[in-house]
Design brief:
Length: 411
């Protein structure tokens, strides 16, 4: 290579290095301008609770949505013949297979339920005829909060999604995922729920329309959210009860009741722990269960006044060891209760360990206080979610062991 060629190559390399160094120095002195970052405003709920605005409304489509399978075009709403097998004296099989979210039907003639096998909801008459509530399919359903007089529900799925669905109009609305423990008002025009923010200053008991609109705070929950239980009573006055009352002597608890307008309702002194309420159809009487050392820490059933002016008055023990949600009201003066057979001591402290014990069926006359066992000796079903038909002739329930749906003849 000649000297002239070497000088030319050296000059080119020098120029390239100089340009590169110049760019680096320029970039360091004058960096490129970045687009500004827009902050996301988080609502401050420590003061006035904002309204939820319009919910996200949709109609049934063929596209999958969170928690929902697309409806099958080949499966219309059908009536399914009832299973007629009589497995035990006075007991009829309605549906073989896991049956969930059993609740009284809107017309009170039977029950509604969810079938996890096909993802659909159904209703059944007292005679066992099952009818689909529609083609809409839902999967991974974890919890269902039913309306009282309409075929509407708020459905919680396993991933935490919350959906309001109207089975008559097929309206579907996605609700905030941080809302929980829904319950419809007696007239079904509103729901109560907990709005559970991550911060204790962002947790409220709320009331809204079923589709999430016009939400407003009823009560701050703070760090007591686990002590507040949504329960809209038949009188519409109470929307929740709490165990945040003042300490009382012995094993007793003071139960407080929350209204929508900061009312100062009478409290109830529960004679034990584990308070679980069950109001009569009018709301004037209250059935509840508690457990206490005097009963071997087994749950026991009590009756008292249930209206807000006399809450807890005329309290009396009914002599049955069971939980209040294993009883259902036939009318204001009669209840039907499933009572676990051979319930051991301390079962009130560990209910989940004894949920599958076989039950006896008792009819309780609240006028006289007498309780009569009405099942035959071969009854060994574990009764869950009891529902009584409108004419009081049938008790519908799921068996906690198999999940199947049965009816029991009361007449």
């Amino acid at each position: 290579m000649s000297d002239r060629t070497k000088k030319i190559l050296f000059a080119i390399v020098f120029i390239l290095i100089s340009l590169g160094m110049g760019y680096v120095v320029y970039w360091m002195l004058f960096p490129p301008t970045k687009a500004p970052i827009t902050a996301v405003n988080t609502p401050d709920l420590t003061g006035t609770f904002p309204t939820a605005g319009q919910g996200s409304t949709s109609t049934v489509t063929t596209a999958p949505q969170p928690g929902i399978l697309p409806p099958s075009a080949t499966v219309p709403t059908v009536t399914i013949p009832a299973a007629q097998a009589t497995l035990q004296t006075g007991t009829n099989l309605i549906r073989l297979g896991i049956t969930q979210a059993v609740s009284p039907s809107a017309d009170k003639n039977g029950a509604r339920f969810y079938n996890p096998e096909d993802g659909r909801f159904y209703k059944t008459t007292k005679d066992g005829t099952i009818t689909s509530l529609g083609d809409k399919q839902f999967y991974n359903v974890d919890k269902v909060s039913w309306a009282n007089t309409k075929d509407n529900a708020i459905i919680t799925t396993g991933d935490g999604s919350k959906l309001y669905y109207n089975f008559d109009t097929k309206q579907q609305v996605t609700l905030p995922s941080h809302w929980d423990e829904f319950q419809f008002s007696p007239s079904d025009n509103q729901v109560a729920a907990k709005s559970l923010g991550t911060d204790e200053f962002n947790r409220f008991l709320i009331v809204s329309n079923p589709d999430g609109t016009e939400a407003h705070a009823v009560q701050d929950l703070g760090n007591n959210a686990d002590k507040v239980h949504v329960a809209w009573t038949p009188s519409s006055q109470v929307v929740a009860w709490t165990t945040t009352g003042d300490p009382v002597g012995g094993n007793q608890q003071q139960i407080l009741f929350v209204g929508q307008h900061q009312e100062n309702f009478n409290s109830l002194i529960a004679p034990g722990q584990g308070f679980l309420p069950n109001w009569s159809p009018s709301g004037n009487r209250l059935l509840f269960s508690v457990w206490m050392p005097e009963d071997g820490n087994k749950p026991s059933i009590w009756l008292s006044a249930g209206d807000t002016t006399n809450m807890g008055a005329n309290r009396k023990k009914l002599g049955l060891n069971t939980w209040a949600d294993k009883c259902t009201w036939a009318d204001e003066n009669e209840i039907i209760c499933a009572v676990p057979q051979n319930l051991p001591d301390n079962s009130g402290l560990m209910r989940s360990e004894f949920d599958k014990l076989p039950d006896d069926v008792y009819r309780v006359d609240l006028t006289t206080g007498s309780a009569t066992k009405i099942n035959s000796a071969d009854q060994n079903y574990s009764i869950k979610s009891p529902v009584i038909s409108g004419d009081k002739s049938k008790l519908l329930f799921t068996d906690a062991q198999s999940g199947s749906l049965y009816s029991y003849d009361l007449k």
